[in-house]
TrEMBL record:
Task of the protein: One of the essential components for the initiation of protein synthesis. Protects formylmethionyl-tRNA from spontaneous hydrolysis and promotes its binding to the 30S ribosomal subunits. Also involved in the hydrolysis of GTP during the formation of the 70S ribosomal complex.
Source organism (scientific name): Oribacterium asaccharolyticum ACB7
Protein name from the UniProt record: Translation initiation factor IF-2
Residues of the whole record sequence present: 316 to 791 of 888
Subcellular location(s) of the protein: Cytoplasm
Taxonomy of the source species: Bacteria, Bacillati, Bacillota, Clostridia, Lachnospirales
A GO molecular-function annotation: GTP binding
Record-annotated Tr-type G domain positions: 70-243
Protein residues bound to GTP: 79-86, 129-133, 183-186
Domain of life per record: Bacteria
């Protein structure tokens, strides 16, 4: 009742009239609540219903505690520009024994793994090799919680800077553990203690100052302290008790993806749960396919990838987006169904967004909000002479903020392809002495495309000019 801004008594009465006896304390199922909401026509306000995609990408498997095994931590490196993020990532990668064993021929797959000895035991750490909080936050915006530990790089000769603070806030917002790497200690002007003091203002209190923030003095240039940094990351991973079930269908996130001329769709994934095998069927956003080949961060062909491992896979039918969740499905049919739902829901979402955009009635608000620079128009008319006359007059319309652009014009009835073009380009459709055919009419109505029909040129011009000034009288 609260959400619908209705009196609870009214809802109780409504249900009572339907023969359902309820009190204020009766719990209704989601469906029942939904039915009531529909009657009050406020369904679109219930976010839960709209976000089918959020539900779709959710992991359908539930892992039991007993099946969980320790997994390597996934680490992102953040900090102010020029403080040495890239240098640290490179230095760690290059000093790593494994990559040297393989001749150092490493290719970037968006992340890499290194091993480190802790108390005589070999341990693995995964680094995302795109530094910076933008990439990290982009992934998070898609709902992927991909990193466990953020290494905050602060140059010892420069101290805390604006992007350092940004990085701290991004890491905190994501509940990511922060380990500080105080870099450039080889420089004569380096002042480690000063950095530690500055950090306190951001609730990052070093251990020797009585706090719990791990601060590792390092030099990416000389390599000093890097081993110690890795050890501390591994130890912190123990504290966090990072675990995953390796014996289940793989689930994870796309780090990056691209179309390669020779190899087709190349997707770099971070496996978060389960084990990914060659031959598995993967669904990721609107892309899907059977994993044809898998390559690790050392450029080796591999057959399987376990939790926290980055891999490059070939075999998807299109290029997925970075940050998208991937899941292994039982078969191609299931994966295709997933992709189809994703496409239709994604389109639905776009329609909902464009509903606000493609309409003469809302034009002025959007111009004011600075959302619109061009007004794209699809124009159809009965004869070529009219097409040209109307197009020329329309093209001349402009004011300081917005310019009319006829993106397509032609002779004949408004058809499906015109409407589809309008949907894709967020355009308004104008018909001069023509009407939409039945299919076009259906789609336009369903997708809320603004179709305007005229038979006098000046009327069309006037409407658009008025709309641009926010003076168009609404049509009822
Ligand atoms: P990013 O912008 O944070 O990725 O910083 P870079 O890794 O590109 O480093 C910026 C500059 O600092 C480069 O000229 C590096 O050579 C230099 N640099 C990075 N780490 C060190 C270090 O430990 N010591 C010294 N002396 N210079 C460093």
């Amino acid at each position: 009742a609260e959400k619908m801004k209705q009196k609870s008594a009214d809802i109780i009465k409504k249900l009572f009239l339907k023969g359902q006896i309820v009190t204020l304390n009766t719990e209704l199922s989601y469906e029942e609540a939904e039915n009531i909401a529909v009657e009050y026509d406020i369904l679109c306000e219930m976010e839960e219903k709209v976000d089918v995609i959020a539900e779709l990408v959710q992991d359908s498997e539930v892992d039991e505690e007993k099946d969980l095994e320790p997994r390597p931590p996934v680490v992102v490196v953040m900090g102010h520009v020029d403080h040495g993020k890239t240098s640290i990532l490179d230095a760690i990668r290059n000093t790593n024994v494994t990559s040297r064993e393989h001749g150092g021929i490493t290719q970037s797959i968006g992340a890499y793994q290194v091993s480190v000895k802790v108390n005589g035991e070999s341990r693995v750490v995964t680094f995302l090799d795109t530094p910076g909080h933008e990439a990290f936050t982009a992934m998070r915006m898609r709902g992927a919680q991909s990193t466990d530990i953020a290494v905050l790089v602060v140059a010892a000769d420069d101290g805390i800077k604006p992007q350092t603070i940004e990085a701290i806030n991004h890491a905190k917002a994501a509940n990511t553990e922060i380990i500080v790497a105080i870099n450039k200690i080889d420089k004569p002007t380096a002042n480690v203690e000063k950095v530690k003091q500055e950090l306190m203002a951001y609730d990052l209190v070093a251990e020797d100052y009585g706090g719990s923030t791990i601060c590792c003095p390092v030099s990416a240039k000389t390599g000093e302290g890097l081993e110690n940094l890795l050890e501390n990351i591994a130890l912190q991973a123990d504290v966090l008790e990072l675990k995953a079930n390796p014996n289940r269908k793989a689930y994870g996130v796309v780090i990056e993806a691209e179309l390669d001329k020779g190899r087709g769709s190349v997707a770099r994934l971070l496996v978060q749960k389960g084990t990914l095998h060659v031959g598995d069927v993967v669904a990721v956003g609107s892309a899907f396919g059977k994993v044809r080949a898998m390559i690790d961060d050392k450029g080796r062909r591999i057959k399987k990838a376990t939790p926290s491992m980055p891999v490059e896979i070939l075999g998807l039918n299109s290029v997925p987006n970075a940050g998208e969740i991937f899941q292994v499905k039982d078969n191609e049919k299931e994966a295709k169904a997933y992709a189809d739902t994703f496409v239709s829901e994604g389109k639905q979402r776009m329609v909902e967004e464009s509903r606000k955009k493609v309409s003469l009635d809302a034009l002025f608000d959007q111009i004011k909000a600075g959302e619109l620079k061009d007004l794209p128009i699809v124009l159809k008319a009965d004869v070529q002479g009219s097409v040209e006359a109307v197009r020329d007059s329309l093209q001349k319309i402009q004011n300081e903020e917005v310019q009319v652009k006829v993106i397509h014009s032609g002779v004949g009835a408004i058809n499906e392809s015109d409407i589809n073009l309008a949907i894709a380009s967020n355009a308004i459709v104008i018909g001069f002495d023509v009407k939409p055919d039945a299919t076009a009419k259906d789609i336009a109505e369903r997708e809320n495309v603004d179709v305007r029909l005229y038979n006098i040129i000046y009327k069309a011009i006037e409407d658009i000019e008025l709309a641009m000034k926010g003076m168009l009288a609404p049509v009822f």
